[in-house]
Amino acid sequence: MANNDPKNQNPPDGNQLNIELPESVAEGEYSNLAIITHSNTEFVLDFIRIMPGMPQARVKSRILLTPQHAKRLLKAMTENIGKFEAMHGRIDEGESFDGFPMHFGGPTAEA
User: Fold this and answer.
1) Measured in whole angstroms, how far is the alpha carbon of residue 77 from the centre of its chain?
2) pTM of the complete model
């Protein structure tokens, strides 16, 4: 797909990377659960959306990372959470999490 935006026509120099963000990806996916697994060569991050009263959830996005990139992501997230908390205050992690919050604290659904 050609990029016809004139401001992105400059070829990248050694320190510049032009990144395209397609509209379908820019919308994003909401996730309230992440499951992380790994092998000796990769980390797999599954982002899931669980809904109140629903006993089943769907993986909305899966990201595969090398161990080196996973560690860089951890560092970047730690730095960004620190910056966020410096501006907005400490993030409350809520109650202890001992399993999947299938009911979200509300009434369970009945058919």
Assistant:
1) 10
2) 0.68
